[in-house]
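My current task is to audit a protein record that another person submitted. Alongside the sequence sits a line of tokens, each denoting a local backbone shape. Where you disagree with what is written, explain briefly why. This is what I was given:
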Amino acid sequence: MKKIGILGGTFDPIHNGRVSIAEEVRKRLDLREILFIPAGKPWQKANRTITPAAQRVDMLDLAIAGTTGFNLCRIEVDRPGATYTVDTLTQLKQEYGSRTDLYFILGWDTLLGSPYWKDPVKIINLCYVVAVPRPGIAPPDPAALERTMTGITERLILLDAPQIDISSSDIRQRVAAGQPYEYLVPAKVAEYIKQHRLYTD
């Protein structure tokens, strides 16, 4: 079986924490590759302005270019309408076939909101769920999740590392306030943010 990791997100911007998490998971679970999938129109963030998809894709491409086992996947930005994880996983499962296992990587905080996803039971039937720590968030209780998502305990992989306290929202705030942020993102991403004057308004 081929093992493929799926790391989705708005990536507004991609930061060193997400890159470190991807590499940690890839090595610990012996995944062939990690697909970085930037969201097109994430329904959870419809209430805030998001950097255009083309620029988020550019930054992500700069961040992972040349890294073995990291690949950019445009499946969500190329799909019209709202972005739903279940649709992405369904399409990837069809494309890769039955001899590929998908490993959906997310934070503990995101996993706690999983009962509110679109079609959560179908999601856990399409993939293994790999949950990584978020500072300040208690580990999810698999038994509690099982009560609303039958079968998740058999598909859940809870990791205890890495513990990385970086967020895209904090980076945007730092840029807007004129505070240092360059050490939080890949060097080429920092250059891109400066060149295109992102997050300054």
